[in-house]
Design brief:
- By secondary structure, the chain is of the alpha/beta class.
- It has helices spanning about 1-15, 20-40, 115-120, 170-180, 180-200, 215-230, 245-250, 255-275, 280-290, 295-300, 305-320, 325-330, 335-340, 375-395, 410-415, 420-430, 450-460, 465, 485-500; strands at about 50-60, 60-75, 80-90, 100-105, 125, 140-145, 155-160, 165, 205-210, 235-240, 350, 360, 435-445, 470-475.
- Strands 1, 2, 3, 4, 7, 8, 9, 10, 13 and 14 form a 10-stranded mixed sheet that branches.
- Helix 5 crosses helix 6, helix 6 (about 215-230) crosses helix 16 (about 420-430) and helix 10 (about 295-300) crosses helix 11 (about 305-320).
């Protein structure tokens, strides 16, 4: 309603031809601009959007496209700019406006979109996530054959505090306006809307993709865009999503859910190390056990020696851990213990993002873990260097600022919302639009956002959501399974099918 009131006032002013009122408004605007300029003197203005022409071989064919880097302002209710969001867009010139466009978000909170961009679905990629990759490897971009650009334009969004995106407010206001779950959804939805308007794409089919906490964002963004911004979303892809925070937390000492959700991914890592295929033959019995005998023995408690013996023996079998160790833990093996103990004799530790990605334990004799995650620490350098070089040298969007591929400061300040809102909004978004299709994609070995959580969530969905509307796909690998070429290609095929059917 406020928008309509302002529009009516503007028309009335034009009709009256009041020179005095117009002059007063002009003077006020100039004064406001001077005040804002004085406040923001310490910010070097971002450049205007800049584009270059590129091409890449995708899916066996050459795709020519425009790569554009720019920023969009975030304004408060008074119209003052309180933040600037930087985006990287890849669009195919000359295509009809009906061509799909996909907005991509990573997670954290505090992660830029570089991982989906240069690792998964953008037209160029930098190597990371394979055993043997090192931070000192040359950060060279190469064509990404598994990109989605041949069937959808791509817009990668860096939330405030990530990439080059920045707040123009003080610390307290920044936390309130950008680092809370609801505020995050509201301003990012407006960014999506503003990009669509600025690029004449409101008549395109629109999709969302989000990884990890981005998978928390995407269902909420879809429902908010549908119901508040007037933007219909044709489909979503949730990559290794953080869908149900309470389910994987360990605050509730009575709940078997965290153990149920983590153990299948531990088993998948063990089976992969044994060279076994990861499919219904190997994983089906594990999932059945988790839903049945495991729950019964877990709830019996350590006081039931027979139940605990039975549970501990089975957990040791499916994880490959020392049976004596597992029994000492009453069958309740936490993630840190699993990642450190599976290769303790070799002095190696596994990554929570992929238990079969390893590095040396810097303090192997320490009673407690004293290391950063092997995969996370390895990929920061190549992704940061490659993205900054692409933006500033290749595209020529010059900016005097640090690029935050992953901001620990944002993550520490984030006000978390430990509800199942993403699941609720997923249900409501799909119920609202009978044509919407959703892909949930996971790597078997991921212990940060384990696949079994999504599987249990989907089992509780109403029939309308499970009848081909929401699909779950599993691939070899971990959280960033797409860094494995075969898994990235498989995800591309699965997701492309839902776009073509849209």
């Amino acid at each position: 309603m406020r928008f309509l009131t302002l529009a009516a006032s503007a028309l009335l002013l034009a009709a009256s031809g009041s020179a005095i009122l117009a002059a007063d408004n002009a003077d006020d605007a100039k004064a406001s601009e001077k005040a804002d300029a004085k406040t923001d003197d310490h910010f070097t203005p971002f450049p205007a959007p800049r584009s270059i022409k590129q091409s890449a071989v995708i899916g066996g064919k050459t795709v020519s496209y425009a790569a554009t880097v720019g920023s969009l302002p975030v304004k408060d209710e008074t119209g003052k700019v309180i933040g600037e969001v930087v985006y990287t867009a890849y669009t195919v010139p000359g295509a009809p406006t009906s061509r799909p466009v996909t907005f991509a978000f990573n997670g954290g909170p505090g992660a830029s979109s570089v991982y989906l961009n240069l690792g998964a679905i953008g037209p160029k990629s930098v190597a990371f996530g394979d055993q043997g990759d090192a931070p000192s490897d040359l950060a060279v971009l190469r064509d990404n054959p598994n990109s989605w650009l041949d069937f959808t334009d791509l817009v990668f969004i860096d939330p405030i505090g990530t990439g080059f995106s920045r707040s123009r407010e003080d610390k307290d206001k920044t936390k309130k306006d950008f680092y809370e779950a609801d505020a995050d959804i509201h301003y990012l939805s407006r960014v999506v809307y503003d990009w669509l308007v600025a690029n004449d794409r409101l008549t395109s089919r629109k999709y969302l993709a989000g990884e990890s906490y981005g998978g928390y964002r995407v269902p909420r963004l879809a429902y908010y865009l549908q119901t508040q911004m007037g933007v219909g979303i044709s489909g979503m892809t949730l990559v290794s999503p953080y869908l149900d925070p309470p389910a994987i937390g360990e605050d509730d000492a009575l709940s078997p859910l965290p153990w149920m959700i983590n153990l299948p991914s531990m088993a998948a890592g063990h089976f992969e190390r044994q060279g076994k295929p990861l499919d219904e033959t190997t994983m089906g019995p594990v999932e059945t056990y988790m839903r049945t005998q495991f729950v019964q023995d877990f709830l019996a408690g350590p006081g039931d020696k027979a139940a605990t013996d039975r549970l501990s023996a089975k957990v040791a079998e499916i994880t490959g851990l020392d049976p004596a160790l597992v029994r000492r833990m009453n069958g309740r093996v936490d993630i840190d213990t699993y990642l450190r103990e599976i290769r303790r004799s070799q002095g190696l530790i596994g990554s929570v993002y992929d238990s079969n990605y390893t590095a040396y334990d810097p303090f192997p004799a320490s009673a407690t873990p004293q290391y950063s995650d092997p995969l996370l620490t390895t990929l920061i350098a190549p992704t940061t260097s490659a993205m900054v070089d692409f933006i500033t040298r290749q595209v020529g969007w010059k900016v005097d600022a640090r690029y935050n591929a992953l901001s620990y400061a944002v993550n520490e300040q984030w006000k978390r919302d430990d509800t199942d809102s993403p699941v609720s909004d997923l249900r409501k978004a799909v119920a609202t639009d009978p044509k919407m299709k959703v892909n949930i994609v996971h790597g078997w070995d991921d212990l940060s956002c384990p696949f079994y959580g999504s599987k249990l969530i989907l089992a509780q969905m109403p029939d309308f959501a499970r009848d081909g509307r929401i699909s779950l796909h599993m691939y070899p690998g971990g959280h960033m399974f797409y860094s494995r070429a075969d898994s990235g290609a498989a995800m591309r095929r699965d997701v492309m099918g839902s776009y073509q059917g849209g």
